[in-house]
Amino acid sequence: MKQLSTMVTSNGHGQDSSYFLGWEEYEKNPYDEIENPNGMIQMGLAENQLCFDLIESWLAKNPDAASLKRKGQSIFRELALFQDYHGMPEFKKAMAEFMEEIRGNRVTFDPKKIVLAAGSTSANETLMFCLAEPGDAFLLPTPYYPGFDRDLKWRTGAEIVPIHCSSSNGFQITESALQQAYQQAHKLDLKVKGVLVTNPSNPLGTALTRRELNLLVDFITSKNIHLISDEIYSGTMFGFEQFISVMDVLKDKKLENTEVSKRVHIVYSLSKDLGLPGFRVGAIYSNDEMIISAATKMSSFGLVSSQTQYLLSALLSDKKFTSQYLEENQKRLRSRQKRLVSGLESSGITSLRSNAGLFCWVDMRHLLDTNTFEAELDLWKKIVYNVKLNISPGSSCHCTEPGWFRVCFANMSEDTLDLALKRLKTFVESTDCGRMISRKSHERLKSLRKKTVSNWVFRVSWSDRVPDER
Length: 470
What we know:
- By secondary structure, the chain is of the alpha/beta class.
- The chain is 42% helix and 13% strand.
- It contains 18 helices and 15 strands.
- α8 (148-151) links the parallel β5 and β6.
- α6 packs across α13 (306-317) and α14 packs parallel to α16.
């Protein structure tokens, strides 16, 4: 007699991915400047630890919020009692206004259309339950966040069909790639229910261009399917251009309050922009009343605690703080990204030009013994076990080209980042092919610097922008 369910006994969680295996190796031997200076440095974790001091300073100046008081009086008993799954109105209002601020107040969010969830993982899975039957498919551009294999598929039974993107144009989404993915799904006898994108992209560290967003909206309109835009990195833009949300495109196309707008859904979280993954705060925004109703009921399985909502509603309602935080966060991310890119270049390693996120998409194709995913895995193992750096190989992100790696930079101190770069440089120089590739890489890097910056390098090209953006 079978004792356990198929979900328990299968490996659908994706825990055997090199993305998760790298974490396991790190946990066995974590780096510590004092206790374990030869340990493994975690560069596979997209956490934003650069602005904790700003939040700690706010907490010190606003003790009532942290100590669960209102006007000096304890509201512990009020918060300790049961709260229904709709969430606190004041918190949803503060969340909506924060999302508007990140988008330059060009668009508005109705708090009544926000569904709270315990992080973006829960939010994305809830949307899958709302939009897809087991066996239905969503199209995702590659490379994509490895956790989506778990979040979107494991419990829902939904399928992912990749939209294959290429380094030849900086991994931008094209119409032909969308059509090919759609046709591939039908060849596999899968019903396509929608497209899911991360904007800005994880793992690319680049924001979608207006052209790509227009293309996506036109595509889902023509196919009568859904679009989920995971915008949890929207507040990490450190380039000099503005973040363009799918909400901007709906407004520009005059599609607000239309049937199309009901098929466009946004996922958001405070895990990346504020660096609070432990608080487990995520949200779904949808214009479809049935989805809002169903997702709200489903949120019973992953609520945000009343204490968390109370604290963060006070923090996000402080407009002076949020304005200063977003500006400073942008500056620190830009500085840290430059530090990583510069260090990589000193080792003859380049990366995709990024303008957002907590990581870089690093090109190590020239370090592969052969142009295969087996060679990529071999290189990854050397970096993990010998260099003791946990980075994420492109194959774990379903990249179609071997030799790309995601490297995180915002979850450590500058000293730790410098040590990681020093270790990597020593490794590159000491490999058998090190001497041969050193000159070749230097010449390649020099050539890249001389080239006029192309559309795919910047992702947000001048030609992509409307006149008022130039």
